[in-house]
Amino acid sequence: MLIELTDxxxxxxxxxxxxxxxxxxxxxxxxxxxGHAQNLIVFGxxxxxxxxxxxxxxxxxxxxxxxxxxxxxTSFKTLKSMFDLNCNTYEKLLKDIILKLxxxxxxxxxxxxxxxxxIANLFNNLNTIYRETGCPLILVTNRxxxxxxxxxxxxxxxxxxxxxxxxYNALQLxxxxxxxxxxxKDRIKVDIEKNEAGIRKICAMGxxxxxxxxxxxxxxxxxxxxxFSLEFIDNIKENLERDSWKEFLENLRPFEKDFLKSxxxxxxxxxxxxxxxxxxxxxxxxxxxxISQLISAFAGYGIIDGxxxxxxxxxxxxxxxxxxxxxxxxxxLSELIQ
Length: 338
Prior knowledge:
The chain has helices at about 20-35, 50-60, 70, 75-80, 90-105, 120-135, 150-160, 170-185, 195-210, 210-225, 230-250, 255-270, 275-280, 290-300, 315, 325-335; strands spanning about 40-45, 65-70, 105-110, 135-140, 160-165, 305-310, 320-325. The chain contains 16 helices and seven strands. The chain is an alpha/beta fold. The mean pLDDT is about 90.
């Protein structure tokens, strides 16, 4: 079993995440020493090391309660599972959680926050728990628009500090893959040095996607087939990319899909897309502020370039122009979103 090349493997050390590790560890340190700590919201694209880092830290620390929205999907099930309570109502659940935290204070950690369907309800519950106990929160998500779902009272009370997991580059992915391959070199038939060109190609591909998960997946398939040829790698990458885009679209909320559809339609009709065009196309309910937030979110995903401007001269000044990051992304989304 080559678990070292899968998501299930927990490495002894986390490469290229020193700042993020220190930020998260400071929550544990301050809570132990002072009884208080900053609440965190951890952002990062899929495959940027968020979950691996969190799991590594909690293996070395105590005084915490961990849950994952990927498993439980709702706020009630998530909180019930985290605190191992048998309750049938929110009122009883919140009461028992608060009592438990007062007796055994701990840091509340929720991974895959974006998978919880009633996210606003979760934040209201966390707000109540935090007000009563002061126990800090570490919330992990790959969705940049999550702040739109936080009720105002919870946002002002929790005062979440952002910790960003930046995208890996090709050199960082190369370090990660070679460390993992070195761990299994005695169990595989692959000559790592002889296939370095193929491995570097995989890391270059992964760098564009910013995902260690994709790189590990491709590497595992190449190892199992003892084939690091460029043609084989390209074929695997194409299939994985398609599956990755499907998963991304499935996780978007309805209004985010509407925004993306509008972008695609406008691109087909016009060379240049302006934010005002989106506002007209999407109609009521999409204020300039909401449009701006969505532009920032999809720029963060790497889908659009939101930093382009058209010079209209003295009369018109500079006008913001929206473009898809590249033709491949436009073609892929056009095909899959139908």
